[in-house]
């Protein structure tokens, strides 16, 4: 049996982009991931498909696993020869009980490594536009727990020394004790006019920042209803927020965006959303798989010279087409003399990556625009190969046939329903934690409605911005009783994101 090992990995404060590269590599090779209730479960996507995922954090239906049980679990799994990742929010050694877990592993002779994470004490103020140090305002920092071990007979904090020891003080997990913290600091010499910031849900879509002074912060927090989880920042550096705020100025800040594309294609949309300050939440409702029979596509490829045009309708279709081409020992040269139509820039890019210069990309990525653009390019009797998804609309093939073109349709791939965490998404929609839902095809709409229930969906999306990639997708949504707020003018992923940004910007301006 191979020797087991435990990695104590910090997951960062919430934004999954703040997970370290080393932490990600540990997740990829883990046999077991023992994780707290993370600020972003998206981090778990880096775990291998075969990894055992063990949630030891607090959930609505279960109390937190006791620390002694977590310790025993880590030891047991390691002794089974497993590579174990103990994934903890923030940094394992900053009020994360990582030191206690490392002690147990040491006592039990278990190999372990510590992979530091970005602590909320540093990241959350940075996302609120507040540096912990600054040559004009602060040369020292103190990080303090605002929630001591409840088993202690008295506070271990030396308030007399702490109150004025450092220029900047950061209190973690201290919202319940905010009045006590304010009272102790002012009683032991901190100026009541010292600036204070309370930052809730830092680095996430819900980030909210309240600034005041020690003598007014309690009133301001109560007025705005700010509760846990939040950090409390005390010091002159808070003054810099008015100038250095950056995260909250991004156009999609404050919006958690549901991405319903297939898992394989979600990354492009998710990256654009993150770049603009939104928080993508991937809920793939479709997936692609091989067609029931490869023979029709293989035969069409072998006699490709019989066709005047080849139409490819998606990057998925391009990938499937060329995989089958390569399996027959052929390459891009096999298409010499055949004209190629790509339905959309993403499809055209996929073809160019494989050495094919596209002959035609329509201005409108729907049947009507394609047919209009090909006027004069096709003649009656021309043979056309249309390689597409098994459930593709018939409008294009029908329109081509009306022009007298001989169309051969072959399935390049199948589109099927994917089943993500429906219960979590339903609960997030009900509680208002999703701001935008995106649909990038008619099938994403249909599958979404089937998964969440046709009767429930209109109410679940009542206060949500619904964004569709184009008129066909929007039409399907309206047919199913969904009100569409955003319809992209350019039927591409960048076009969809641009349309969402325009919509939310108008909303903010009106408010």
Strand order of the largest sheet: 3-2-4-1-5
Q: What fold name goes in the CATH topology slot of the largest domain?
A: Rossmann fold
What is the share of helical residues? 25-40%
The beta-strand count equals 20
Number of domains: 4
Largest beta-sheet characterization: 5 strands, parallel
Secondary-structure-based class equals alpha/beta
Annotated CATH architecture of the largest domain: 3-Layer(aba) Sandwich
- Give the N-to-C terminal Cα separation: 63 Å
Which stretches are low in confidence, meaning pLDDT under 50 for 5 or more residues running?
none
Mean pLDDT: 91
Strand content: 15-25%
Multimeric organization:
single chain
The first-level CATH class of the largest domain is given as Alpha Beta
The best one-word shape is: elongated
The number of distinct helices, counting runs of at least 4 residues, comes to 19
Task: Characterize the structure shown.
The chain is an alpha/beta fold and 511 residues long. The protein has four domains: 5-118, Tetrapyrrole methylase, N-terminal domain (Cobalt-precorrin-4 Transmethylase, domain 1, 3-Layer(aba) Sandwich), CATH 3.40.1010; 122-245, 2-Layer Sandwich (Methyltransferase, Cobalt-precorrin-4 Transmethylase, Domain 2), CATH 3.30.950; 256-285 and 418-510, Rossmann fold; 289-417, Rossmann fold, CATH 3.40.50.10090. Helix content is 34%, strand content 20%. Helix 5 (159-162) links the parallel strand 6 (141-145) and strand 7. It is elongated and about 90 Å long.
